[in-house]
Every structure is written in structure tokens, then in C-alpha cells.
């Protein structure tokens, strides 16, 4: 199989159900989701597989869900298969609750970084936010887009923030607080009984 087809040499690309210009908002949306997936893969490669067994399992699951999300966003056919459901959104919420309980209390804004894996997760998080904006633009341009990819990516960016903090905590690398931040998070980030 050849990797090159030459079919995109005139500025168009294939999507499910046809072809669109390479600068189409749809391509921007699913391309950004692919970019998130790449940074998630980079973070997995930087994590100790024993210490972070739970997070690695989550991230590998997320990679498949991101592929489903991209597939759904790249579909222009009238027959739309919805591979992404509410279940992964609920799962991310449950996992976030667990991670928040493990992370140190948060009072101020923090700077992205710390360990290499945490920094990669923060990059994935910010790219997910860009993907979220592209999905909103796509939804404005085309009314038939399912709301699930947007909800999923929104929840994913929150999960990635929580995971980045736990990665640093397990490695005993403190989060770096933004030095001009007031105390913006009132009370504890720990769940109350």
C-alpha cells in the first residue's frame, strides 16, 4: 500500500461521504482532535506503566474515543453513525472525581508543566480546548452535528487537567502557582462527605 495518493494535491481531502477543501472547518475540527490524540500518545510514552497504570489505561481508552470523535466529525454523509455516546462522558466525570480527591488542594491558578508527562498532558488539554472551539464553529455552520463530540471534548479537557496534576503529585513534583494569582478557588477541591 502506498501512503501517498496525490488526490489532495489540489487542496481537497476525502471525508466520510465525499470531499471537502483542506481548510474546511470540519477538517480543522477533526484534525485538531487528531492532534490531541498525538499528545495523549506522547504522554503515555512518558509515563511509568506501573505507577500510572490507571491513568495509562484511561489515556489509551481516550485515544480510541478521540478516534471515534474524529470519525464522527469527518462524516458528511446523510447516514451518520454515532460512535461516540454519553457513556465515555460519564466515565470521564467519575474518573475526574477520583483524581481530584488524590491531587493536592488547589487555591490558585497553576502554570502548565512540572514533569514531562504532565507538560504533555497540559498541551493535550489546551489543544482539546482549541478542538472544542473548532467543533462549536462546525456546529454553527452545520446544524446536523451531534452535540456529543462537543460535550466529550469539553469533559476531556477537564479530565486532562486533573490527570496532569495527579501525575505531578505522584512524582512529588509540585504544581507551580501563577505568581500573580489571587486565591480563585474558594474552599477545598476535595469532595465533602
Automatic annotation (TrEMBL):
It is an enzyme of class 2 (transferase). GO terms for molecular function: corrinoid adenosyltransferase activity. Keywords: ATP-binding, Cobalamin biosynthesis, Nucleotide-binding, Transferase. It holds the Pfam family Cob_adeno_trans. Pathway: Cofactor biosynthesis; adenosylcobalamin biosynthesis; adenosylcobalamin from cob(II)yrinate a,c-diamide: step 2/7. The keyword Amino-acid biosynthesis does not apply. Residues 3-166 form the Cobalamin adenosyltransferase-like domain. Belongs to the Cob(I)alamin adenosyltransferase family. This is Corrinoid adenosyltransferase.
Amino acid at each position: 500500500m502506498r501512503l501517498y495518493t496525490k488526490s489532495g494535491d489540489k487542496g481537497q481531502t476525502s471525508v466520510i461521504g465525499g470531499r471537502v477543501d483542506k481548510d474546511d472547518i470540519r477538517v480543522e475540527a477533526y484534525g485538531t482532535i487528531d492532534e490531541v490524540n498525538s499528545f495523549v500518545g506522547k504522554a503515555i510514552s512518558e509515563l511509568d506503566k506501573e505507577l500510572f497504570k490507571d491513568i495509562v489505561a484511561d489515556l489509551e481508552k481516550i485515544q480510541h474515543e478521540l478516534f471515534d470523535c474524529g470519525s464522527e466529525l469527518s462524516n458528511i454523509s446523510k447516514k451518520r453513525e454515532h460512535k461516540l455516546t454519553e457513556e465515555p462522558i460519564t466515565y470521564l466525570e467519575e474518573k475526574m472525581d477520583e483524581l481530584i480527591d488524590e491531587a493536592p488542594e488547589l487555591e490558585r491558578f497553576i502554570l502548565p508543566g512540572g514533569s514531562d508527562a504532565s507538560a504533555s498532558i497540559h498541551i493535550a488539554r489546551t489543544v482539546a480546548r482549541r478542538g472544542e472551539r473548532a467543533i462549536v464553529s462546525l456546529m454553527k455552520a452545520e446544524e446536523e452535528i451531534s452535540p456529543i463530540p462537543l460535550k466529550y471534548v469539553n469533559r476531556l479537557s477537564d479530565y486532562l487537567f486533573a490527570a496532569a496534576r495527579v501525575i505531578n503529585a505522584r512524582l512529588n513534583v509540585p504544581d507551580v502557582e501563577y505568581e500573580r494569582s489571587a486565591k480563585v478557588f474558594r474552599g477545598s477541591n476535595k469532595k465533602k462527605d
